[in-house]
Amino acid sequence: MKLIRSGNRGEEKPGILLHDERYDTSGLGEDYTHDFLASGGLQRLAFFVEKEKDRLPKVAPTERWGVPLANPGKIICVGLNYHDHISETGFIPEAEPILFLKAMSALNGPFDGITIPKGSLETDWETELGVVIGKTGTNIEKPEAMDFIAGYILVNDVSERAYMKKRGGTWDKGKGCNTFAPLGPYFVTKDEIPDPGNLRIWLTLNGELMQNGNTSGLITKIPDLVAYSSEFFGLFPGDIISTGSPAGSGVGRTPQRFLRPGDIIEYGIDGLGSGRQECREF
């Protein structure tokens, strides 16, 4: 299934994508929260849609696409998880995966637009595969890791690189600015993505192809990331692990190219749809 949420910010209603049309599933009486995922909500939704599919109301084409998950607990991001991206950034590879958290206040819809922070010099794009956790776990064993996944979601890990590297402290300064975590357009259940380790990732800037990678290039693979992350964070339904970005970010261009007001990025991953963000000044 492809789960969506539609409507004005703060007023989103749950829905589903069927045959490229959006349908309202409010009749189920549940939004796509972490409690929904934890309590078998996906199974209830599948039964409801099968029963009511001919009576579900359509969502108007003009309705805003919201964040597909109502209340993710956290977004755990993985840094430097593709060799080609390490090369272009100039960072030194680490012996273990780099993990950091992205602020929930940065959540943003797939077409809402990106606000460039005041004084920003190096706002950059990073298209990533997001793994949505479906059940609670800590110190998860690698052979069981895939059982903890509910599905996948398109993420853009928008980053202000000068904040990250030149302002002291941790990367979090450049990762959690408002609008810096666009999610969706939809949350795709695990059964629809049989091989998350072989998905094309792409991004264009003003129509020019910048990123053209594949999840086969992940250094630390998805089961390993789930198990590894669970050593340091309790994983809970609705949490997202954003698995890292392949090469093609602005920091790797010669000369470097960062986002400016009026720029448009369009990006996507096989099976997870695409997003479009127009950049604006603070």
TrEMBL record:
It comes from Chitinophaga solisilvae. Keywords: Hydrolase, Metal-binding, Plasmid. GO terms for biological process: small molecule metabolic process. GO terms for molecular function: hydrolase activity; metal ion binding. InterPro entries: FAH, Fumarylacetoacetase-like_C, Fumarylacetoacetase_C_sf. It comes from the Bacteria. Belongs to the FAH family. This is Fumarylacetoacetate hydrolase family protein. Gene3D superfamilies: Fumarylacetoacetase-like, C-terminal domain. SUPFAM superfamilies: FAH.
